[in-house]
Structure formats: C-alpha cells, structure tokens
Amino acid sequence: MRYAYLGPSGTFTEAALLQVPGADEAERVPAANVNEALAMVLEGSVDGAMVPIENSVEGGVSATLDAIARADHLQIVREVLVPITFVLAVREDIDALEQITQISTHSVAWAQCRGWVQANIPGAEFIQGSSTAAAAVGLQDPEQHHQAAICSPLVAHDRNLKVLVEGVEDNLGAVTRFFLVTRPGPLPAPTGVDKTTLIVPLPEDKPGALMALLEQFAARGVNLSRIESRPTGTGLGSYFFSVDIDGHLAEERVAAALTGLHRLCPDLKFLGSYNAAEGITPSIDSHNSNEAFIRAREWVGQLLHRL
Ligand SMILES: O=C(O)C(=O)C[C@]1(C(=O)O)C=C[C@@H](O)C=C1
C-alpha cells in the first residue's frame, strides 16, 4: 500500500496516518500540500491520502474542506483523531526568546499558538511554512532565516532540535481530526458508531432551504455532528454546506434522510460512511429503527398491490 500525507516526515498528518493499521509498513509518500496529496489519489499513484479536516480550536481546515468538496471520485474511509501539543524549537545558537524575530510554522498551528507568541515574543514575525515539520527542518537549512519553529515534540526529538519552550499552545487538550481518503470503492461495514459526510449545494435564493435540509435529518432522528458553509467560489452569496451526520448509509433512517435530501438537492455529494473515531452508540427512537422503516415500506407495498 502507498499513502500520501502532508510532509515532510514528522507532521501531525503523518502521526494520523501511522494510526491506520499497516501504515507503519506501507510506503508513505510526502506531499507539499493537501491538494497535491489528493491529486495523487485521483491519478492513482497512491492508494489513499491522510488529510486534516478540523481542529478543535481553529475549526474547519478550509483547504481540505474545499478540495474534497470540489473533487469528484473521492471517498472518506476512515476518521482519525490526533491530540495536538506544540514546542518552540530553535536554531542551535539561540538561547533566549529575545533573540527570536521570525517564527515559522503551518498557518493552522500558528492560529493555535498566536496568543502565547504575542505574550512571550511580542513583535516576532510569522513566516508561513508548508507544515510544522517543514518549519522544523528549515531550522537546519542555512538558506532559511527563521530562528524558531512551532512543531510537534516528536519531530523536534527525531531531528535532534533544540527545544526552548514546551506546550506553547493557547488551549490545552486540542485535537485535530483527519480523514483517510481513497478512490471510491466498497463502503466500510457499519459498526453501530459511524459517521457519514455529505456536501450539500443548497438552491440559491430559496427561502427556508436550510430549514428544509435540516428537517430531512430531524424527521428521521439523525444527529448532525458538524455543519459548515463554504463559498462555492463562483461569487458572493453562493455556498455549499459540508455536513457530518451520526450514522451509516446502511441504516434505514440515514438512507431515508439522504433520499429526502436528494429530492431537494439533486447535486448532493455523498463522501462516505465510516467508523467514528470515538463516540457512543446513538440511542434511536423505536419509530426511527431499521425495523420501523422496513415495516412501513412493507405496509405501503401491500397497499400498492391493490392497484
Ligand atoms: O503541519 C502539520 O504538521 C500538519 O499535519 C497540518 C496541521 C493542519 O493542517 O491542521 C495538522 C494539525 C495541526 O493542528 C497543525 C497543522
């Protein structure tokens, strides 16, 4: 197996990939950004790509949300959660925070440490890195000028970097959620604790369209665990919704909600049903159980026989 991930080695994305059974022995192919990793999946040069989707502090990773929403022929097959903590790694000749004028890291990492930097190294300039590990590796590159990098403790340790401060994040206990994305194939089997991800382009200028979307789920007892609106890119006022729901397509209530939603939004995209990384088995009212849907369908079927 070959998997793409945001490189170089030592990113949080690689840590997420290493949680996939067998990934430690698989070929791991570093990509420069999320789009490149997804392009490798689409062209078939890798079997899958690990991509960050959401951070508990910073919110949705818009680059990924947009890339997977726009690409056809991608499927989410697994969800992975990675606890996030950052260190401030520095060049060998740096001994004090006052010597630092430029700090490099990934923009999502910077957003999680900005408060600490402002309080402790006011005036330090942010140099955008393609990843936290790229910023860390850059400390050993004479061509790059930043004196410090915000990165994972693991990459600092593995690259033998000098760490000036540990735990520089503004919020303790942050978590980033990742998706393993492949070309479309068989759906992972339902486990009872699953999620389904959808891209819903709502009809424009239609009063109550969002309400109608939500009703499809509410009426079948399907819980939404994430809903974000993103611009389609075609002009102001044009949005799609990126939605996660609790449940698997194989569940009758989920299939029924998607059937209703498809009538409202025929361009609805199904990105996959997959095992939730954590969570409890949802409690389902008896009228939303598989049996209730099957009985109701049989009843209507019998009535139709009278035609
Ligand atoms: O730069 C990395 O190490 C990444 O894996 C990317 C990424 C992200 O895009 O959210 C992953 C997790 C952290 O929250 C910060 C950065």
From TrEMBL:
Classification via Pfam families:
ACT, PDT
Q: Which reaction does it catalyse?
A: prephenate + H(+) = 3-phenylpyruvate + CO2 + H2O
Task: Give the matching InterPro entries.
Answer: ACT-like_dom_sf, ACT_dom, Chor_mutase/pphenate_deHydtase, Preph_deHydtase, Preph_deHydtase_CS
Q: Indicate whether Amino-acid biosynthesis appears among the record's keywords.
A: yes
ACT domain location, by residue? 198-275
**Pathway membership, UniProt:** Amino-acid biosynthesis; L-phenylalanine biosynthesis; phenylpyruvate from prephenate: step 1/1
EC assignment: 4.2.1.51
Domain Prephenate dehydratase per the UniProt entry, residue ranges: 2-183
- Where does it sit, as one GO cellular component term? cytoplasm
Keyword line: Amino-acid biosynthesis, Aromatic amino acid biosynthesis, Lyase, Phenylalanine biosynthesis
Which Gene Ontology BP terms does the record give? L-phenylalanine biosynthetic process
Q: Where is this site: Essential for prephenate dehydratase activity?
A: T176
Q: Name one GO molecular function term.
A: prephenate dehydratase activity
Record carries keyword Amino-acid biosynthesis: yes
PANTHER family from the xrefs? PREPHENATE DEHYDRATASE P PROTEIN, PREPHENATE DEHYDRATASE-RELATED
From the Swiss-Prot or TrEMBL record, give the protein name.
Prephenate dehydratase
Organism equals: Glutamicibacter creatinolyticus
- Species lineage: Bacteria, Bacillati, Actinomycetota, Actinomycetes, Micrococcales
